[in-house]
């Protein structure tokens, strides 16, 4: 007969043995589960817009391969993308007013809303908690919680008093363009029809913890009027200091120094857009495609076969570079050593590469019909190009300007790598 103490000891030992077996089984099961799920980092990923089919490709720019396709994104004819701080979520701004949040680790749509009738791009705040969308129809800017896509604030643009009211009796408001993020949780944007630049400061709203869901929350909005006729696009300098708007209705540009906002909007480059013998303008240049390298900004001339070189300390033009045709995007490699230029129709099958120190032509490439967009890998060893009418994306070595790989894509347009998550104004 076992004594009472011995029985107790044996029961404890048996319990320990059973518990150890259970833990071992759970550990083995968990380990096997982890082994079955491939891990994927986001730092070398990206998303490519396939505009004709309303879908996107999720890609890896290290392995140079397509990982997945996601559809159901609506009208992507002028789509753009921003990323969450952790690079996991891509926010797609569609032309049909759609705002879609894609989980690029799960290769699926996380959330999607239709927030307006016609939108034209967006931005994400410095802290990554707010996503703003600029709208053509009904005008204005809507700001959403980046996690839930719940409305945080709606900023109505200026009423156009000379226009008849909409069918529903509401006033017609100015279209909003050139929306970018700025330091300290601000958004800056231009009002096309009312000739204004506005700065919306959300820093106080964030401090009061109202971003979870506060449709009535309003930021502090600073308005600059009479900045020039019909600002059509804009850019933010990489350091977040200068906001520059191009003017469709007159020559010149409008510059706002966010370090000295009290100075208001200044006019720069009064001759921008003029030419001794103007050519037909097939497409207005994208200002977000400006290249800023050292003390120079390289910008596409309007309606001319030139790239203009401007000193960013004085904002005066110092020289110009003769180019193949009318430039659209002028983009600098991450090391600023070279700029890559694409062109408007009918010469949009060509890319030219120029040295930023000597301004000399390095190479002319002909990737194919309708080269719409370029995106450099974060450290600049490769550049990806969308060649829309060939239905392919091409990858080039930036040192040798040689083609490394091409793959199929349905009418590709914008290419957006996740490294943009940590860049101001993109």
Q: Determine the structural class based on helices, strands and strand pairing.
A: mainly beta
pLDDT < 50 runs, ≥5 residues: 25-35
* Total DSSP helices: 2
Q: Name the strands of the widest sheet in spatial order.
A: 3-2-1-32
Radius of gyration: 26 Å
Strand content: 35-45%
Distance between the termini: 81 Å
- Number-wise, the strands total 32
Mean pLDDT: 88
Q: Portion of residues in helices? A: under 10%
Anisotropy-based shape = globular
Largest sheet: 4 strands, antiparallel
What features would you highlight for this structure?
mainly beta; 4-stranded antiparallel beta sheet; globular; single chain; 426 residues; 9% helix; 2 helices
In brief, what are we looking at here?
With 426 residues, this protein is mostly beta strands. The protein contains two helices and 32 strands. Helices cover 9% and strands 43% of the residues.
Tell me about this structure:
- The protein has 426 residues and is mainly β.
- The chain is 9% helix and 43% strand.
- It has two helices and 32 strands.
- The protein has helices at residues 4-36, 203-207, and strands at 45-50, 55-60, 65-70, 80-83, 89-93, 98-103, 108-114, 118-124, 130-137, 141-145, 151-155, 176-182, 186-191, 196-201, 220-225, 231-236, 242-247, 253-257, 265-268, 291-293, 296-300, 306-311, 316-322, 327-332, 338-343, 351-355, 361-365, 371-376, 382-387, 392-397, 402-408, 412-417.
- Strands 3-2-1-32 form a four-stranded antiparallel sheet, with no helix packed on it. It has a four-stranded antiparallel sheet with strand order 4-5-6-7, with no helix packed on it.
- The chain is globular and about 55 Å long.
- The model is unreliable at 25-35 (pLDDT under 50).
């Amino acid at each position: 007969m076992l004594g009472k103490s011995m029985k107790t000891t044996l029961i404890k030992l048996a319990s320990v043995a059973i518990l150890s077996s259970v833990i071992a089984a759970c550990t083995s099961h968990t380990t096997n589960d982890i082994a079955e799920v491939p891990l994927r980092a986001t730092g070398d990923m990206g998303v490519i817009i396939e505009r004709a089919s309303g879908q996107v490709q999720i890609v890896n720019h290290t392995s140079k391969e397509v990982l997945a396709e996601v559809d159901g994104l609506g009208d992507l004819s002028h789509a753009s993308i921003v990323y969450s701080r952790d690079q996991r979520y891509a926010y797609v701004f569609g032309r049909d007013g759609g705002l879609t949040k894609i989980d690029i680790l799960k290769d699926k749509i996380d959330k999607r809303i239709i927030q307006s009738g016609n939108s034209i791009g967006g931005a994400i705040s410095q802290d990554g908690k707010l996503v703003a969308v600029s709208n053509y129809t009904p005008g204005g800017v809507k700001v959403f919680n980046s996690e839930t896509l719940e409305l945080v604030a709606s900023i109505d643009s200026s009423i156009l008093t000379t226009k008849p009211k909409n069918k529903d009796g509401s006033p017609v408001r100015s279209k909003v363009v050139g929306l970018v993020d700025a330091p300290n949780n601000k958004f800056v944007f231009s009002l096309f029809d009312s000739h204004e630049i506005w700065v919306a400061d959300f820093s106080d709203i964030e401090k009061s913890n109202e971003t979870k869901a506060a449709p009535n929350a309003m930021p502090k909005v600073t308005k600059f009027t009479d900045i020039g006729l019909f600002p059509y696009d804009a850019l933010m300098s990489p350091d977040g200091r200068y906001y520059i708007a191009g003017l469709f209705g007159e020559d010149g540009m409008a510059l706002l120094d966010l370090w000295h906002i009290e100075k208001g909007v200044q006019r720069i480059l009064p001759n921008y857009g003029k030419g001794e013998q103007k050519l037909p303008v097939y497409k207005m240049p994208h200002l977000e495609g400006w290249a800023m390298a050292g003390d120079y900004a390289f910008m596409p001339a309007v309606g001319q076969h030139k790239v203009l070189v401007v000193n960013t300390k004085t904002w005066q033009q110092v020289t110009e570079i003769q180019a193949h045709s009318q430039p659209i995007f002028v983009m600098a490699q991450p090391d600023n050593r070279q700029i890559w230029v694409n062109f408007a129709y009918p010469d949009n099958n060509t890319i030219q590469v120029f040295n930023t120190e000597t301004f000399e032509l390095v190479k002319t490439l002909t990737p194919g019909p309708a080269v719409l967009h370029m995106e450099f890998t974060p450290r600049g060893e490769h550049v990806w190009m969308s060649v829309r009418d060939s239905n392919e994306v091409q990858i080039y070595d930036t040192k040798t300007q040689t083609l490394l790989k091409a793959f199929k894509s349905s009418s590709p347009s914008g290419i957006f790598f996740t490294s943009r998550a940590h860049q101001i104004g993109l």
